[in-house]
Request: fold
Amino acid sequence: MDGDGEILYDGSLAIHDARIVDVGPADRIAERYTGSEVLNARGKAVLPGLINAHHHFLQTFLKGSRDDLPFADWIDQVSSPFISMAVSDFLAGQPDLQCQAARLGCAEALLSGITCVLNMEWATPPELIDVYAEMGLRVIHTLSMSDVDQWGNAGMLLPVDATLELAEDLIPRCGSVPEERISFRYGPACENSVSADLLQEVRDRATRHGVGIHMHVAESRLSWDNIHARHGTTPVQYLHDLGLLGPDLLAAHCIWLSDEDVEILARTGTGVSYSPECHMKVALGIAPIVELLEAGVPVALGIDSSAVNDNMDLFEATRVGAMLQKIETMDPAVLPAAQALEMATIGGARALGMDSDIGSLEPGKRADVVLVDLSGIHLRPINNILNNLVYCASAPADVSDVIVGGEVLVRDHQLCRFEAGEVAAEAERFLCRRLTSAGMRLPRFYDSVNETCGNPWD
Reply:
């Protein structure tokens, strides 16, 4: 599929110095270029790299840990304790919890065809940027911040001065990674857990540094009720009144929206990240994606995290996201496969303000490319390639090769820089030791993978 959305059934592309230099019929590309390496994509679909526009790598360690909880209980019992542990480790100068979780998450992302991810985390040690660089993924690193103890757990809050100082350190650290593969965003947690003063400080700093903002917006009925009770307005209107919205802000979720909210998001050029499987699992509601798209709001697709999904299959997310909108509107024609897949590619790039660089296979763009093996029985016969990808494909099973910035990072379902089993085993050994040191009860699984659990930082 090229930059115009045209499907080339006998196509090829040429890559040089991390960028795509040509896309077209295979015979023409072969006549023009002699490659130092040629990937045979016969029997495969060649797509732009998939973009996960909302994620929390730390929660990779929570995969399958607790299900069937109301949202507030999930925050209290699942998310909040782990965030508090991350903040405590940061203050103790121990980066391994974040780094091990991110390394495992990056490996899963790459093997699922994700070439770009927005990772939103609290109290992130600078060493985390090195992990991204080692794994090779394109990452928008977002530093979460909060100064209101909304959930009654003060351990989640890193002092504001320390958070803003950390952001000042992370901005150049992200920018120092070659090929602009890592970028930075400020991440005020949500409209309820960040004061108006801090939100305006974030806006001022983001504008001054020329970086973006990412935050949870209108995620739950609880969030909407709190803002309405305190300010007499909606979360979107509240943020607009503070001057926060704009093309450099990506709003995650945006479930509880009025018609006026949709109009404000469209008018300000604010992007939205849609995480349908998360919305379903913790029963947050159904985001009005059809209305947002019709209004011209750029919409990206997000996984959210392994604690509320629990995989990183963006083909599954496109499928679920499309079907959820069909049942919400009772119209099977809305969000067809091509438009759903667009949210995971060029639509995600637009919402992130990165569409001049990634999201489609066009000359001049960065060479973020995935190859999808079409030989699986679950994909055959292929009557419509886009429909089959959205409604039949499994990213972890079918993505065979992944290229980021012109570098092959996954070849024939195997990571090129690391061995996936070793990454997982190392992460599990660390987590076993860390949870034991915190006095937490371990799942029975760890009896079989770890003989001993000692100091987590040995």
In short: The chain is about 40% helix and 20% strand. The longest strand covers residues 114-122. Residues 176 and 400 are 30 Å apart (CA to CA). The mean pLDDT is 93.
